[in-house]
Amino acid sequence: MSFDRNKRISEEIKKIVSELIQKEIKDPRIPPFTSVTEVTTTKDHRYCNIYISFLDDGVDAEEALKGLNNAKGYIRREIGAQIKLHYTPEPVFKVDASMKNAMHLEKVIRELDIKQDSDEAKDEENDDEK
Which residues contact 92 (CB under 8 A, 6 or more apart)? Predict the structure, then answer.
């Protein structure tokens, strides 16, 4: 039962932080296409891990994390104002590389498909010549 409550709290924190990043925080180090992919909250609600993904490849993730950590106090205060909990969780920002990894895998698969198609075409040409 506490798992469901923990999950609901994490989802609510995700909504709040996403909105803050998109509309409130004006740090130039944080790119405009920053996405909160997941939030996990500890059982005692003292910490929440916030996984951030950047849609732009040219983003310096370390600088963006510095910008988010700079706004950590503001984010925590807004979470506390919007969610009534005994403890307001301390946000811990982490880069979620799953989107980048998925895009890389897709690129590799596409390259392999192209290579396989070209190899099959060469084999057909060799068969036609015989």
Answer: 47, 48, 49, 50
